[in-house]
Amino acid sequence: MNSEGLIGLLVLLIAGWLTLSTLQARERALAHARRACERVGVQLLDQTVALRATRLCWTHQGLRLRRTYGFEFSEAGVERRLGRIVLVGMVLESLRLETPDPTASEDARPPI
Question: Is residue 87 domain-resident?
């Protein structure tokens, strides 16, 4: 196999790893969103989270992907509110649920 073939194979392997990692992170973010909504007594709308941003960041464990997910929830099924989850690697960094009063927003971080 020549060097071009090896480079192509390496690119495919990296793309596959990144795809699997992204799917696993999305599932973790969705699980965190579900638990947070259950804990505060609101309904997770659409039963999904959406990737909003991805960047690289340094941690004490080395280089990791920092992914930000958004989701929507409702207290009475009428009004949509926004939530945000940030994962560094596969670890929850923050989880935020929007409140009616923007000055009263609180972090809703589940115990680890």
Answer: yes
Residue 24's φ and ψ, nearest 5 degrees, are -65, -45
> Sign of torsion, CA 32 34 36 38?
negative
d(C-alpha 85, C-alpha 50), whole Å: 10
Distance of CA 84 to the CA centre of its chain: 8
In total, how many domains does the chain have? 1
- Rounded average pLDDT per 10-residue block, the chain, 112 residues: 88 93 95 95 93 94 94 88 95 90 50 43
91: enclosing H helix or E strand: strand 91-97
Q: What is the pTM of this model?
A: 0.79
Residue 22 belongs to domain spanning: 3-107
Please indicate, yes or no, if residue 112 is contained in any of the structural domains: no
Is position 17 within any domain?
A: yes
Q: Is residue 21 within a helix (H) or strand (E), and if so which, with residue range? A: helix 3-40
Strand 81-88, strand 91-97: pairing:
antiparallel
